[in-house]
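Hey, quick one: can you model this chain's 3D structure?
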Amino acid sequence: MAAAAAAATTSIPYRTTGSTLLHPFSELLGIPLDQVNFVACQLCALLTAFWFRLYLSPTYASCSIRHAFATVFGVYFAVFCFGWYSIHIFVLVLVSYGIMNMASIPNIHRYSFMVAMGYLTLCHISRIYIFHYGILTTDFSGPLMVVTQKITTLAFQVHDGIGQKAEDLTTEQNQLAIKVRPSLLEYLSYQLNFMSIIAGPCSNYKDYIAFIEGRHVQMKLLEVNWKQRGHDRLPDPSPVGAVLHKLCITLVSMLLFLTLTKNFPVSYVVDNQFINKSSFLSRLGYLYVVMQASKPKYYFAWTLADAVNNAAGYGFSGVDERGNFHWDLLSNLNIWNIETATSFKMYLDNWNIQTSAWLKRVCYDRASRYPTALTFLLSALWHGVYPGYYFTFITGIFMTLAARAVRNNCRHFFISSKPLKMSYDIATWIVTQLSVCYAVVPFVLLAVEPTIKLYKSLYFHMHIVCVLVLLLLPIRSQDHNKRQPPVQGTQNFDINKKQK
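Sure thing. Here's the predicted structure for all 500 residues.
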């Protein structure tokens, strides 16, 4: 019995819904098979992306061939990684395409949003019973979440382009509005292409079509007067340097994940012996270390996904004042800004950037009341139905409002001299980093019991501080309808708009 139980326990990490072809490598490396499949598919996607850019460029292949190739390989990678569970992704995409073509323009965004979010939520609920609090760390819900973003983004942009007057839209909404419904091939390619099917990110439909048609880089280059810079013709920027740089970050992130994450398990923060024997500051310090150790897997996955898109020639964002080419249009994070963030807003602006942009475009910019609260709640629903997600995002609402109040009422006292400003920056960096750890840890713990246990051990101090700040400091009203035109090319989620 004991041997059988031990065998069952050791077999759990290697469980997967996808292909078992790489199981020998999984056992050799001691890494769960679902993670091995994920990395293998992304590395294959990277090589495919280089080949796609060189041999299926718009010069040599038609748009239809590029669309078809991207779609077929995307479907194959999804099936390899997630097996028959990938059917959920395909069903949602096909149903949403039916809505795209049959729904009336005034309702196309509503129906698409309700169907996509409803189906995603049902799948999230089923995961609790199928995988019981995340035995599989890379399952079909990840791609389904990205597809949901794309479905709703496209539906809103079609609604803006066909059903709305230009004067009723913001500058950004006008720029991204789509005047013609996509064909089936274009729709499938946008949703299921091999570059983003496994780990995203969500991109705008106009940018993707421009990439397929070969206009993506040119559009950005034409924004610069090259004759003034001594060029007779447009340069041809290569993504190779950007890809290599991102692969180096990916490698470092993977090494940190394999070392730090395993040595600092998050479950230790709710261990009875640790809670009873350690001081408050020790518990808070260890929480910071644990949450730092949980970041490399996100850095790895998102940076590798960015590199895959860049390798295919997608993701060019323009040229800076020094003439340097940038390939960060689809970047999902800015690690330096995250680790040095001195405000809750700065942290959010640089973490999961494309999801933040999606939340801003489909919720925050369109909500007539309570945009911050509604945006956080939509984010929680999109992530899943684990209770820990809702602890995180509800706590995040209070922290956002409290941080805004402190900044608006106190910051001007500390910018009169460099020493004061430096002291303020150091203090706000410490508070920001610890606050984020405090808010995000339920996201990792998932369940109610360990979350309450942890917060009790920390005396709910951040919740209490946020409530006191909101009660004691005056809150400056903000007119949500007076929106500042978004800067083209930025992907910021301005839930603290006008905070700067």
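One thing worth noting: The longest helix spans residues 418-445.
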